[in-house]
Amino acid sequence: MEILVHSKEEMLEQATKFLHSLIPGRSATVVALSGGLGAGKTTFCQGIARALGVDEQVTSPTFVLQKIYLLNDQSFDRLVHMDAYRLTNAHELAALGWHELLQDPKTLVLIEWPENVAAAIPDHAQRLSFTFIDDSTRSLSY
Predict the structure, then answer these.
(1) What is the pTM of this model?
(2) What are the CA-CA distances from residue 67 to residues 2, 10, 139 (Å)?
């Protein structure tokens, strides 16, 4: 399915709709967000975080690699926002506790730039693709 998004608010709304389609399973729920710089990945993550009740400002974890948000009264206990832009292979995720994260069914993992660590992304991951169309339009596919 491809959706054209014409504003930041529309992207936040699409994130909320997508979140409501997620159901915790037997392991962590992983959402892989692919797309170039400025395509809307972080804005989408902000929408999910907001819908989960995160009050903190959500920014791209490019330099810290991951941010963990504890959640209250949600279907997930924690949101893990990861950015693999600076990583070069799947082994680098191990230092971030990747394998432990995947074991917890109450964890929602949003990972930007999953193509940089493709071997570590589980088969059951939801895969979303973001494309910059112009200054006000993005394409979201999943």
Answers:
(1) 0.95
(2) 28, 24, 26
